[in-house]
Amino acid sequence: RRGKLHTLGHPVDVYGHLLHWACPAPNTQTPADHLFRILCQLPEKQEELQAQGTPDSPYADTSNSLNQLNNKFTISAFLYQSKVLLSRTILCSLRNKKYLFAKMGHALFVSFITGMFMYNIPSKKPHQIETNVIGCYRTITMATFGSFSYGAISILFSDRKILVKEYGSNYYTFLPYFISKIVVDFAITCMHPFVGTPIIFYLSGIGSVAHLLGCLLLGAAGHSLGVLVASLVDTSEIALAIFPAMSYFINMLTGTDIDPESIIGVLAYLQYISPPRHAYNIMIKLHYRGVESLTPRIQGLVDGFVSIYASMAVLFVMYVVLITAAAYCLKRKVLKLTDG
Fold this sequence. Notes:
By secondary structure, the chain is an all-alpha fold.
């Protein structure tokens, strides 16, 4: 209480407070994240604790008070729960320093190698510049989609038992938990493309802030797709087993491996719901906007498909639809687990 913890044993009357606030007691010796979660819910003043037995006290008859609080949605309760859960999720994520260092190191290594040796575009001949520009944007598009979508697969499995306990006992509502997981994981996943992509753009002599915005929209759509897949299955192993087939087919529709008009029948229209295809369209049209005397290949990419703003709108709508579907599916799955 009041920020002071006992390093040996348990805090004073901790089990009484756990029962009082309908929070599961720790099985191990007071883990830091569990104590953080508990102490954020305790009354701040001793007078509030002593007033719990009085009839006029807001803490009177508190056996179901937390359930009543969480069953009734209020903005203040939502903001408070979001603050606590965001803090806890950030602290738990920052503890894994080796993982964060590995992602940062991998992003730096890959971006420097890619920018200096593979797509050193200013030093090439005209026909090589065209090929390398297309290849660079294609690589960034596919890597961004893969990084965000695969990165979202495992975030809902790491502490699912805690979610089931807390949500099943009405300790927290679902929406703050879901938002905290999505926001923190999206920020960590952003580390790779938003450290590596600007370096590649700088070393290659291409790209702009608008290109990074396109990467961000693509990353959001890919991340929400990964969360949706994770919400539909029971284990991360199953998700990682079925997702490559889906993502590979989606990445094929970026518009560079194939000519979509050559696809049989209605399959040609699948490119219009492919996130990498829209991001690739944004990057190519931004790069060659206002440029004259283009080759037929580039002219076809610039004139074809949809406009830049239409692609951005599609990516944004796709993100909203996918993340809403992911939240709905995950909530249904958690309800089944808590009922079972």
